[in-house]
Amino acid sequence: MADRIEEKSRFAGWRREAWLFMKAQLSAQIATVIDFLITILLVKLFGIYYLYATFIGSVIGGIVNCVINYEWVFKAEDCKKIHVGLKYFIVWGGSILINTWGTFALTEWLARMKWVNGLLGYYVYDVFILSKITVALLVAFFWNYYLQRFFVYRNHNLKRFLKQRLEHK
Questions:
Q1: In the chain, which ranges are E strands?
Q2: Which residue among 2, 62, 65, 151 is buried most deeply as judged by most CB within 10 Å?
Q3: Confidence check: pLDDT of 124 > 60
Q4: What DSSP designation does 114 have?
Q5: Is a pLDDT exceeding 60 seen at residue 90?
Q6: Rounded distance, CA 77 to CA 97, Å?
Q7: What is the DSSP string of 34-81?
């Protein structure tokens, strides 16, 4: 009997984590759609260099993601907004740098590949969309979710958290 209760409890925990991950991914997708729309509009309609447009899209998408995550995904009402904001800014800054640099590096690499040139011609503005999608997915899964889940939306005392991390090294 105790084994069945423990098994149900384990399944419920797994289900809760899976639901949280799905909500976080939905939030990220909403922010990503906004990010991509802004980026593509800035490049295609206004002729802004794709790297600047990527940065601007990432900033606006990040703001949208933070608000949705705070209110709906992680329900961080018990966390001080200033602490969430500071922690999000740290993680978000890293995300913007990785997204921007990653998009640039992958775009430049793909643009120099002969098979890509054969498919698309040397038209960086089309290649950057493929690069942006690839980098955005990698950053979403391996950077944003874990840092937001275990750092940003947890009620950590930031000074104590950093002090503990620095002392353990």
A1: none
A2: 65
A3: no
A4: H
A5: yes
A6: 28
A7: HHHHHHHHHHHTT---HHHHHHHHHHHHHHHHHHHIIIIIS--TTS-H
